[in-house]
Amino acid sequence: xxxxxxxxxxxxxxxxxxxxxxxxxxxxxxxxxxxxxxxxxxxxxxxxxxxxxxxxxxxxxxxxxxxxxxxxxxxxxxxxxxxxxxxxxxxxxxxxxxxxxxxxxxxxxxxxxxxxxxxxxxxxxxxxxxxxxxxxx
Length: 137
Description:
69% helix
């Protein structure tokens, strides 16, 4: 039965499958299949995005996953984290150098130390100008 399930799941577009399962709040059901795909060497961002969402929701070392995994889409996962855990959104955005998103999340959630550390590491004067803009206050 499990082999049939694995065979049939391979025929679906991962983005579509994840979207449908996510609508029903059942993403965790895909965990074994997603992990098996990762172990098979799958580097498809949709697979890694879905796995990141599950780890974030289940609090299964999400920060470690976000820092070490190189295949997820930083904007997709960062957006997913914004309301759940802004700190994790910053980790995802930092990894992908999503400057505007990180600055916005830091300002909206008063994560000024995180923002300052990021700006110092990036060493981009334009980012400082954007971060210090009066509209961001």
